[in-house]
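It is worth pausing here to work through a concrete case rather than discussing structure prediction in the abstract. The textbook approach is simple: state the sequence, then state the predicted structure, then interpret. We follow exactly that order.
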Amino acid sequence: MSSSSSGREEEEDSKAVVKPLLLTVKVVGHERVVMHTMRMTDKLQVVLDVWYHKVPEVTYNTGVFLYDGLRVRGDKTQAELDMEDDAMIDFLEHMDGGA
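Step two, the predicted structure:
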């Protein structure tokens, strides 16, 4: 009898761990916020391309994308970076100058 109740507890625990299939990612930078919903298994290059498309004044390779202080590469997925819904990626433009 106790084995069937423990089986239900294990089933409930496994359901609690399941992450949603679709997550929304926010890219913040250049005084803009771009949101994109995508599957956890999609490559992050999709959201980087969306950023460049929706912020035309920023051209490719003029900055870096950071998530939790680490550079985001387009060949990674949200699942690989353990992102959650409404994860925020920062876009920082390269700075030229100095004295």
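Step three, interpretation. Residues 2-17 form the longest helix (16 residues). Strands lie at 22-29, 32-39, 63-67, 70-71, 87-93.
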